[in-house]
Amino acid sequence: GAGVSQSPSNKVTEKGKDVELRCDPISGHTALYWYRQSLGQGLEFLIYFQGNSAPDKSGLPSDRFSAERTGGSVSTLTIQRTQQEDSAVYLCASSLTVLAGALHFGNGTRLTVT
Amino acid sequence: SQQGEEDPQALSIQEGENATMNCSYKTSINNLQWYRQNSGRGLVHLILIRSNEREKHSGRLRVTLDTSKKSSSLLITASRAADTASYFCATQETSGSRLTFGEGTQLTVNP
Fold first, then answer.
1. N or C end: fewer C-beta atoms under 10 angstroms in chain A?
2. For residue A100, is pLDDT > 70?
């Protein structure tokens, strides 16, 4: 596709369940980022991937959060044993490289934990 | 803690007026970027200014960077109702590659 695609666009889950969020970056972009945005707030960095290098996981808030990127393309963000405080919009972005500057964002997945 | 902090948090102006938003940051940077976010959407990149640049223009946008004061400003001239959105600054630090965002300025342009 022409842009970054995220699915699902909305996800409602019960507390304690696991969820998987998917991101399809722009073809050819080697850098992929995940951010979290709470209502009316700025973006909280979670993790980024750059090519075959080890990902920077320093923003992941707890060990319930993990992410992987298969084949240098699609990425999944997994949240285990979801808590109500995990409710937020999860945004994925890609860029040509980590140092290339501009990020291209998807429209996000709105996660609601009940 | 947030690297970039925008000021003001909210700004309401009339169509045709200019809008100025400011961003301050704490560490050395490679570049500073401004993004726009419409409600319920992802962010859209507006402009990037490198640490060795002082001013940059793109259409009705003008960005300045003062590395000695660790601050940047975004000026939108001749604003339109369609400019209503949240605007975020983001910095890429020299010590790493992540892009760190501020809390944003909510701009409302009244027709």
1. N
2. no
